[in-house]
Inverse folding.
């Protein structure tokens, strides 16, 4: 059994880590590129707070996330976050309720970035 199938990655912003935002965004893009190349991808990726901006068409992350979705990774965006940030554009993945998100968080290993 491949244990990584039980992993869920949570993004809370567009930046991985704290400090320099430019570097943090570069790390995010590099991480997505690396995940595309791997066979052991997470079951799902959840985007909360300002990280939902990565899902919008036109974002440098959009095509990478689209590729990950095609490779079987669930891409979920918090509905509350999309609504509060007035994001109604085309996004990769699907808007998700807190119940859907909690199901993944409570029944899988969670990695928060």
């Amino acid at each position: 059994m491949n244990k990584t199938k039980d992993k869920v990655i949570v993004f809370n912003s567009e930046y991985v880590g704290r400090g320099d935002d430019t570097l943090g965004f570069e790390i995010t893009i590099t991480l997505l590129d690396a995940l595309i190349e791997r066979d052991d991808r997470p079951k799902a990726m959840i985007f909360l707070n300002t990280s939902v901006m990565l899902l919008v068409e036109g974002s440098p992350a959009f095509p990478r996330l689209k590729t990950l979705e095609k490779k079987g990774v669930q891409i979920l965006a918090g509905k509350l976050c999309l609504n509060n940030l007035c994001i109604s554009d085309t996004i990769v993945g699907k808007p998700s309720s807190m119940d859907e998100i909690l199901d993944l968080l409570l029944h899988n290993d969670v990695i928060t970035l």
Q: What stands out?
A: The chain has one domain: 3-112. The mean pLDDT is 94.
